[in-house]
Design a protein that fits this description.
Blueprint (H helix, E strand, L loop, with lengths): L2 H18 L9 H11 L6 H12 L4 H22 L9 E2 L2 E2 L1 H5 L1 H20 L20 H15 L4 H10 L7 H11 L1 H14 L4 H28 L2 H4 L5 H4 L5 H24 L7 H11 L4
Antiparallel strand pairs: 1-2
Helix pairs in contact: 2-6, 3-4, 3-10, 4-6, 4-10, 7-10, 8-9, 10-11, 11-14, 14-15
Length: about 300
Amino acid sequence: MSYKKYYDRSISRINSALESLFSDGDFKQKTLIDAMRYSLLSGGKRIRPILFIEFCKASGGDPDTALIFALAVEMIHTYSLIHDDLPCMDNDDLRRGLPTNHIVFGEATAVLAGDALLNAAFELMLSDKNELFPGTASMLPKKLPSAETRLEVSRIIAQSSGAFGMIGGQILDMENENREVDVSLIEDTQRLKTGALISAACVGGCVLAETSLDKRHAAAKYADAIGLAFQIKDDMLNVTGDEDTLGKPVGSDTDRGKKTFVDFYGISECERLVEKLTLSAKEQLSYFKNNEFLIWLTDYLASRNS
């Protein structure tokens, strides 16, 4: 099987698992559930859950054990996108080629849908029987990780999502609009806003597998490099990409007065930086056995057009 087919099959498995969330039951909060599922099932690369599963696997862990946590990371990522698109933040009308959540359901419901997805992620990670998630019992591995391990993974994910992680990066991103900033601040912002949850996926997979500290450190360095490369590539596509391919407007950062890596370096230098960071990320994968797919994925992300 080619790595691309393996990647597509991994996406299909994750999408199928996400589809089962909140799929059964006579919910009184149907509007809220519909809004949550609308964004959760709107597609995407599923990079974070795939990284979680693959780093667990490369560390000698059971990938089936990682699925629940991988889904939780994707739920948190989805909530952040719903809130990022709100009128009080980026005020975007399009995400992944579809109207954004607040356009379809209204701003108040979109806020609540994001809040509910964040909380549901931790309910999913910390529940033994998934009683709150009809249809997900089949996802539970035969043997759950220890309570201590699950709590540590949950703590890592919580920290990466909070004030000193993704949310902290979001406030910096908002404050960077329409003012002079230097490139080091942009790097710090994106390491939090984009990179923190990617790091949680990579390191969390290692922790779930109860692997050595050197592998966890290598996973953190990998995530730092790939997260920054991912954001630089996003900035490039925001200038050179096609709206139909991206599924969102191009040039939106400039319209909001945001300085990007392209503003500081230009397209050619950004391309060189993506190559350098991609190479650096792949070097960290030498700590892991059976790393061939992760090497392919790292190159694939660097060459993407959406």
